[in-house]
Specification:
The chain has 468 residues and is mainly alpha-helical. It has 16 helices and four strands. It binds adenosine-5'-triphosphate and magnesium ion. Adenosine-5'-triphosphate (ATP) binds next to helix 14.
Length: 468
């Protein structure tokens, strides 16, 4: 196998979004559309539930704790709303009872979040597994219908990768990618809305660090993408090396190449290790970097919000709610850039998978295939010329006939084309010129299943096909 061609496909890392590929991929979701809808509804619900906690804290502080700590005039928007509702409905609660209720709401939202996330994760994985099953079945089904010549051209290792790794990359897309993007976006929009509702000035201060975060994310995304691609290329090289050396182990041992091969492998292996360490470096900088910027945001909120509280312009409840939201805000933002990588890997994988599935089935039964009731077994090769490659002819102008029941021995030195004759008789390859006839009918007109079935060769012709 030539290393250059096997690497080529793995090196392509195209765009992150391709509408045509996406539409085809979504075709695999269609049978499970209700599962997908349920997963999206649940994840949106979980995002909304995550908004509840800080609001409950704000109400607890503003309405039930702070009145005892000092004169309460400033209320956060949510506390004012709750207070107005209580007045309107004529509800009065002791602070201790109120705290209890708010705590229960907080706890309830956490429990509900747990349940929702559990079901969401479960059904999303269920859908991913089913889609993987369908995809693998389709790919293997397709592989079986591809002409033998296809397998001469494509190394086995690469085809196995399609059915295993590439399908896994798509699973990642369905389980971790698409659906959770909905959750992240809803959470971000929800937090922005709530923060502006609580205090628009403090909201602007909170978002002041966003450019910094975007800058870091952009840096990370471009570097991580390049190093991810590098790791894939190195891994493909390891796979190619292993495939060549394991399938050719007898040759390696015959020529005492063990030590040389080990040296070669160490080089490939080392390149992979170094590429991985480089990739890890970017992750190691990015996530702590996000933490650092988050801490900066928290500091800004404490400084600006704190002086607002002291000046009586901001309620303590709003300040604490802001601090909690700030922690929840930057994480989905950072996650979104990770989703981008998943999307990109999935697009590259689906492109390779669909290219395989789109490979033409060059050899198939014609529409009105010849299906005789009885097979006699007369064989005739008429001026057959054939080559596996265009530039190298294996058979030229071969003609002979075998009558039903007749025994014929084919003798020739190795590489003369004996196996090729048997392959042509079963139409594993199509001819360049001439024709192969069975019972006076060209094999191209035969029904393939019947031509290759036992009835032809077990009937009366004793043409023992040599092993390939
Ligand atoms: N899949 C293939 N792709 C390209 N070339 C091939 C392929 N199979 C066979 N060949 C080439 O075609 C020629 C004929 O091969 P074939 O296998 O028919 O010989 P054979 O007579 O069966 O030999 P043997 O006695 O070793 O089995 C050889 O030169 C061989 O290298
Ligand atoms: Mg042979």
């Amino acid at each position: 196998m030539s290393e250059a061609t096997s690497l080529h496909e793995e090196e392509i890392l195209g765009k992150a979004y391709d509408a045509r590929l996406m539409r085809r991929l979504l075709g695999y979701v269609v049978p499970y559309r209700w599962t997908a809808v349920a997963a999206i509804v649940l994840i949106v619900l979980s995002s909304l539930l995550q908004l509840v906690g800080p609001l409950a804290t704000a109400v607890a502080l503003d309405l039930f704790i702070r009145p005892f700590a000092g004169e309460a005039e400033t209320l956060s928007a949510v506390s004012r709303w709750v207070a107005d509702e209580m007045v309107r409905r004529g509800i009065e609660v002791e602070p201790a009872v109120g705290l209890g209720i708010v705590s229960l709401i907080y706890l309830g939202s956490l429990l509900l979040t747990f349940l929702v996330l559990y079901w969401q994760g479960y059904i999303m994985q269920l859908m991913g597994q089913r889609i993987m099953f369908d995809l693998r079945r389709d790919i293997f089904g397709r592989l079986q219908r591809l002409p033998v010549a296809y397998f001469d051209r494509n190394p086995i290792g690469r085809l196995v990768t399609r059915v295993t790794n590439d399908v896994d990359a798509l699973n990642e897309l369905f389980t971790a990618g698409i659906v959770s993007i909905f959750g992240d976006v809803v959470l971000l929009v929800g937090i922005v809305a709530v923060l502006f509702w609580l205090d628009w000035r403090l909201a602007i201060v909170t978002f002041a660090i966003l450019p910094l975060l975007l800058l870091l994310t952009f840096w990370f995304k471009t570097r991580a993408r390049r190093s991810y691609r590098e790791v894939r290329v190195r891994l493909a090289r390891i796979n190619a090396f292993l495939q060549e050396h394991i399938t050719g182990m007898s040759v390696v041992q015959l020529f005492n190449r063990e030590e040389g091969a080990l040296d070669d492998f160490s080089r490939v292996n080392d390149a992979h290790r170094r590429a991985n360490i480089r990739a890890i470096f970017y992750y190691a900088v990015y996530y702590p970097g996000v933490e650092l910027i988050t801490a900066l945001g928290v500091g800004l909120i404490l400084w600006y919000g704190g002086s607002g509280v002291v000046a009586g312009a901001l309620s303590i409840g709003a300040l604490v709610a802001f601090l909690q939201y700030a922690q929840r805000f930057y994480q989905p933002l950072a996650d979104l850039s990770e989703k981008y990588n998943i999307l990109q890997a999935a697009m590259a994988s689906s492109e390779r998978i669909f290219r395989l599935m789109d490979s033409p089935v060059e050899i198939a039964s014609p529409a009105d295939a010849y299906r005789p009731g009885e097979v006699r077994g007369a064989i005739e090769f008429r001026q057959v010329s054939f080559g596996y490659n265009e530039d190298e002819q294996v058979l030229h102008d071969i003609s002979f006939a075998v009558a039903p029941g007749e025994t014929v021995a084919i003798v020739g030195h190795t590489g003369a084309g004996k196996t090729t004759l048997a392959s042509l008789l079963q139409r594993f390859y199509d001819l360049d010129s001439g024709s192969v006839m069975v019972d006076g009918v060209d094999v191209r007109e035969w029904d393939l299943e019947l031509l290759r079935g036992p009835s032809v060769w077990c009937s009366r012709t004793s043409f023992s096909s040599p092993a390939r």
